[in-house]
Specification:
- By secondary structure, this protein is mostly helical.
- Helices cover 54% and strands 5% of the residues.
- A hairpin with a 4-residue loop joins β4 and β5.
- The N and C termini lie close together (9 Å).
- InterPro entries: AB_hydrolase_fold.
- This is Integral membrane protein.
- Keywords: Membrane, Transmembrane, Transmembrane helix.
Length: 816
């Protein structure tokens, strides 16, 4: 990205034509010289509009309104495009340009949709949904400027919750491979007899693999491969999506002090290489140690029985000591260091990231050898010893989340504001992450147990059964779904009431029009449904609270009774017994069905644009944030997109000296704001910000108040030269910014009319659509507001010599 226009390579347009290479043979120095020559008589440099699309993505042809487009800079993942006729627009005066850009700024489109969508294999990222949700909890803390110790404690607790989720996932894989398959099914003649692929493990064949320890050692390959896959995906996605160092520049003495500026201004905010590498090593080591514990605990239990081998018992105790030491080391690595944002931290703790997973893998290898040691008298019966680990994980997660809630309340009391759930949004989301993790782990275990048992209810009778806690958790799912249904009914009634209240007011926006009852109801219903976004806390809060409550009750019941709900209810009144049996059977199916639906819908979401838009905003909000808590979360696209936009704004303004409007729709407006925060003070003087359909305040400002709260958005308003925000009442995602400041020009324009025409008019002979979240550029107000922003930017003089500009940017290019 050191040059703006690539000289040799021909570029293909959207219509199949090729832009001749002769159009792109200028070096940056030559381009600046030609631009100055074209602007004879001291004419000002050209203006640029940089468009950034939103959720779901689009094509450069649609963004630029021209079938002939060509990439200016970038690659197949993310790139900046122009109309083919505008490739050399800076070298020509405006009157020589063609098309819609002739009387306005040159238009460029930054296309980043391949960062979050693409081939259907990326649908498997949704299986990492619990990790992504846990990572979100890190960024949802309430703002607090003078409680740094509480902020650090909050971040530490989130990282520990994220660690327990990794352990839970690997423990779920161990449950399927080690307990259900290798221990219970392979150890039972009835179960293994009907499955040819398990025949060589059956004790009936008296083969080498028939001993329980050797069966467990072989089955450990599956969770070990899963751990290795998670490490590989985390490492590969970092290199592909996030390894974009930000633009390094000399310190600007005229800029405000860094300590008083929002976190998104900090130079290291979008480059978390060190923390991700450390967490990746810790979570990978935790996965290997979890598998080693699954092998060692049942083996040492047998070796401690009377008549066991003293040598084997000693080896078991040594392995347990190594496991404890490894667990302490992993927790210490997670606790020791958080994110470093005040500078670009490109260093790596190479000893930690290499030695920690390597040592854990060595402990796993020793555990495999220890479990494979000959024990002729060992017979596998009932469930695998050590299943109490699921209860321990659940109790640990609950304790960490309750402590998180205490920290969040302390922070919220120190700086109360418009924060959902009284500052408890982060802990609530952490509860949901743990619940999703339990559904994934438990759903797979329940379905495998049901399949291996030939259709019998898991836990009922002598057949194959998962841990008792997973069955209790499955039983709680129907009750939780019933609560969701009740909430859905409540919000449906609320939409209906709001729609009826809006009906008399709709015609106020269309004076002189003839009323149409159907049209009026449709507009009012659209506005009422759009308002549901603001009610999201009333869904997240109750669901999170009940998930935590049901989880605590399930852990208590499993610990006290040590029986599945159907068995525990024996002897109770008939209605109670029937309800327990029904909930257990239904919950078992629902837990397995939830896993299958997640995979199915994930693939559909990446094949169907409509499904992609349905979950797009939630997914793009989740993957916007860096992986600060969980290294196995899906990659953060903003760590590529924000440096891309920053580089483009800095290099273009330095090269050509013109005014620039960065124009962002929906999620693109969040990227645009983040990029404006990252450019230097000189560049911000040439940049205007235009946002439309923006969730900056409606979603980000409320759910992430420490980063997009009123103070931060007011700071952005003060630092950027000018900013306008377009919004509609019918938009379910975007909304007004509502800055708490009465000085200076307003950021928000009046709500745009939607639809543009109520009935048929000479300008709209066919019924105008209700646009909602899309097509803001179709509104006449868009061009008017963009022109107003350019008018408020001061006229620029021709840029300095290209050699001087290149010298100013040299440090940035060297860092890339």
């Amino acid at each position: 990205m050191g040059t703006i226009l690539e000289p040799e390579r021909p570029h293909h347009t959207g219509s199949g034509d090729t832009v001749p290479s002769t159009m792109r043979t200028d070096t940056p120095a030559d381009a600046s010289e030609h631009a100055r020559t074209a602007r004879k008589g001291g004419a000002p440099p050209p203006d640029l509009e940089l468009l950034v699309h939103g959720v779901g993505g689009t094509t450069p042809e649609e963004m630029l309104g021209d079938p002939r487009t060509s990439p200016v800079t970038g690659d197949e993942t993310a790139a900046v495009y122009r109309r083919a006729d505008d490739i050399d627009a800076e070298q020509r005066p405006p009157e020589d340009r063609e098309g819609p850009d002739r009387d306005g700024p040159i238009r460029e489109a930054y296309v980043w949709c391949n960062l979050t969508s693409g081939n259907s294999s990326r649908a498997l990222w949704l299986l990492l949904l619990p990790f992504m949700v846990a990572n979100l909890a890190h960024w949802m803390r309430p703002p607090a400027d003078r409680r740094e110790r509480t902020v650090r404690t909050y971040g530490l607790l989130v990282r520990l919750v994220a660690l327990t989720l990794s352990v839970l996932l690997i423990a779920g894989a161990c449950e399927v491979a080690l307990d259900l398959v290798a221990w219970q099914c392979a150890g039972s003649a009835d179960c293994a007899g009907g499955k040819s692929w398990l025949g060589f493990l059956s004790p009936e064949n008296h083969g080498w693999w028939s001993q329980p320890g050797r069966r467990l050692a072989l089955a450990a390959v599956l969770p070990g491969a899963l751990t290795g896959l998670l490490w590989y995906l985390s490492n590969r996605t970092w290199s592909a999506y996030e390894a974009s160092p930000p633009l390094e520049r000399p310190v600007d003495e005229s800029a405000p002090e860094a300590g008083n500026r929002p976190a998104l201004c900090l130079p290291g905010f979008w480059y978390g290489r060190r923390i991700v590498a450390r967490l990746r090593a810790a979570h990978t080591a935790a996965g290997f140690l979890t598998i080693a514990a699954g092998l060692t605990l049942p083996t040492t239990t047998y070796d401690r029985e009377p008549g066991g081998s003293g040598l084997q018992d000693t080896a078991g105790w040594a392995l347990l000591t190594l496991l404890c030491a490894g667990a302490v080391t992993v927790v210490a690595v997670v606790c020791y260091r958080g994110r470093s944002e005040s500078k670009v931290d490109g260093e790596l703790d190479r000893i930690t990231i290499t030695a920690l997973p390597g040592a854990a893998l060595a402990v796993l290898a020793l555990s495999v050898l220890y479990a494979g040691w000959s024990r002729p008298g060992w017979v596998s019966t009932h469930q695998l010893p050590g299943n109490e680990a699921f209860c321990a994980i659940a109790i640990g997660e609950g304790a960490l989340i309750v402590t998180m809630a205490v920290c969040a309340l302390v922070l919220h009391r120190a700086a109360p504001g418009r924060t959902p759930l009284y500052g408890l949004a982060g802990p609530a989301v952490a509860v949901l992450a743990c619940g999703l993790g339990a559904v994934l782990a438990g759903g797979v275990a329940q379905r495998f147990a049901d399949w291996l048992d030939g259709g019998g209810t898991p836990g009922e009778g002598p057949g194959i059964a998962p841990p008792v806690l997973l069955t209790w958790l499955a039983t709680a799912i129907p009750a939780l779904l019933l609560v969701l249904v009740v909430l859905l009914v409540i919000f449906t009634v609320r939409v209906w009431r709001v729609r009826n209240r809006l009906l008399p007011t709709i015609m106020d926006g269309y004076p002189g029009e003839r009323p149409d009852a159907v049209r009026t109801r449709r507009i009012a219903a659209t506005i009422a449904r759009a308002g549901l976004t603001d009610s999201a806390p009333w869904i997240v809060g109750p669901v999170a609270f009940l998930t935590l409550l049901f989880g605590a009750l399930c852990v208590t019941a499993a610990w006290v009774t040590d029986e599945v709900p159907g068995r525990a209810a024996d002897g109770a009144p008939g209605a109670v017994d029937a309800a327990a049996q029904t909930a257990q059977a239904l919950g078992s199916w629902l837990m397995g069905l939830a896993f299958l639906m997640l995979v199915t819908f994930a693939r559909r979401a990446y094949r169907s644009p409509s499904a992609r838009r349905t979950i797009g905003i939630l997914w793009d909000v989740g993957t916007f944030w860096p992986r600060a808590a969980h290294p196995f979360a899906p990659p953060c696209y903003a760590e590529r997109a924000v440096p891309d936009l920053t580089w483009r704004m800095e290099t273009w303004t330095r090269e050509h000296g013109g005014r620039l409007v960065i124009s962002g729709h929906s999620q693109g407006s969040v990227l645009a704001a983040a990029a404006v925060w990252q450019v230097d003070h000189r560049t911000r003087g040439q940049v205007a910000l235009l946002t439309y359909g923006s969730p900056l305040e409606r979603l980000y400002g409320r759910w992430f108040p420490a980063y997009f709260g009123p103070t931060q958005l007011l700071s952005l308003h003060g630092e950027v030269r000018c900013w306008r925000n377009l919004w509609r009442y019918t938009d379910p995602i975007g909304g007004p910014i509502k800055l708490p400041d009465g000085s200076g020009p307003e950021v928000d324009c009046d709500a745009l009319k939607d639809p543009l025409a109520y009935g048929r008019t000479p300008e709209h002979p066919l019924p105008a659509p209700i646009l909602g979240h899309g097509d803001y550029q179709a509104d006449p107000a868009f061009d008017r507001e963009r022109a107003g922003l350019l008018a408020r930017l001061p006229e620029q003089t021709p840029p300095p010599a290209a050699e001087e500009a290149a010298g100013q940017m040299s440090s940035g290019r060297s860092s890339g």
